[in-house]
Amino acid sequence: MIVYTKFVFKRPAITESGERDRLEQMRSSPRPPDAPALVSFEPVTINIASVPYKPKGVDGSAQQIDGKLHYATIGFAVEVRNEKLKEMVEDLRSQISDLLLNSVGRKSFQELKNVQGRYILKSQLLEESNRLAQTRLQAMEAADPRKKLKASLGVREAVVTNVFFTSFIVQ
After folding, report:
1. N or C: the chain end with fewer CB closer than 10 Å?
2. Residue 99: alpha-carbon gap to chain centroid
3. CA distances from 86 to 46, 131, 144 (A)
4. What would the CATH number be for the domain defined by 32-170?
């Protein structure tokens, strides 16, 4: 093995044209896609709408039942297109959390206890998070119109690409 590497194998000479060809080949090859980043949100407990709106006692009286209201404990993470956009989404953390609180607060126990309800909530969070992110990007570009911020950050469509529930408890 040593004889081969020391005496038999002759490394090709490095020439200017060979290096130019190698560099051109590197530039023309497609870049690997950016690795997505995750922004995690702590689980939060939210009261959800009761059905009927004001639960009545078993005897039919108008007295509201205590302890029959429902709540949900939800933790989630959003997947961001690339690492460059993660800081911007971190700045939107409180607004995205508010979106979750508003969306879940209007849902009923029946809507959240099945798979379809969770899927609808997930798609609503994804859509609204992207709306917030696009609004933020437009505001940043308006502040300095010479910058092509979307192109430099690698944004073509959505900033947030997915929402993952890390915990989802409805009681």
Report:
1. N
2. 13
3. 26, 16, 20
4. 3.30.479.30
